[in-house]
Amino acid sequence: MKKELFAVGLLLFLITAAFLNLLHLKRFTGRLLGLTEEAYRCATVGQWEEARKKAEDAEKLWSDADYYTHIVIRHGEVDGTTEAFCAMLGELYKEDAGGAKGAYIALKKQIENVYGMERLSFKTVF
Questions:
Q1: How confident is the model at residue 125 (pLDDT cuts 50, 70, 90)?
Q2: Measured CA distances, 15 to 1, 9, 20, 27, 92 (Å)
Q3: What is the distance between the alpha carbons of residues 126 and 59, in angstroms, rounded to a whole number?
Q4: Residue 118's pLDDT is what?
Q5: How far apart are CA 112 and CA 109, in angstroms?
Q6: pLDDT tens-place string over residues 46-91
Q7: Residue 95 DSSP code
Q8: Of 8, 9, 51, 125, which is the most exposed, with the fewest CB atoms less than 10 Å away?
Q9: CA dist 106 to 20, 25, 68, 82, Å?
């Protein structure tokens, strides 16, 4: 009977940890999306310095979470998001509005995928 209780307790702990991880990941990706959207909005009106600052803040937030992202997120998603940040920053430094739009769309989709891959759904379970 003790084995069964231990197994149930362990299962409840794992479910709780997974739920808390999802909450944290949702908040984290939400902050990233907010900063990148602000950067893009600044770029669309020609405020390149402010756009670069917002994008750099978002990239710093992403890179500072290295300890977390490399443990709980697939490495392909981590690498793809890092590359998307570099692409957006490159376009902002070139002050290319068209390139910034494409890079922003790619980065936004990549960040949304980070949460989407971890979210509990039929596809993530089976």
A1: low
A2: 21, 10, 9, 19, 41
A3: 32
A4: 75
A5: 5
A6: 999 999 999 999 999 999 999 999 888 888 899 999 999 999 999 9
A7: T
A8: 125
A9: 27, 19, 22, 11
Q: The tokens of 48 are what? A: 């390149």
- Tell me the fold of 2-125: Four Helix Bundle (Hemerythrin (Met), subunit A) (1.20.120)
Rounded Cα–Cα distance for residues 42 and 53 (Å): 10
Buried b (16+ CB within 10 A) or exposed e, 13-46: eeeeeeeeeeeebeebbeebbebbebbbebbeee
DSSP state for residue 65 in the 8-state scheme = T
**CA-based torsion, 3, 4, 7, 12: positive or negative:** negative
Q: Which two tokens stand for residue 126?
A: 């089976």
- Residue ranges covered by each domain of the chain: 2-125
List the structure tokens of 55.
């994008």
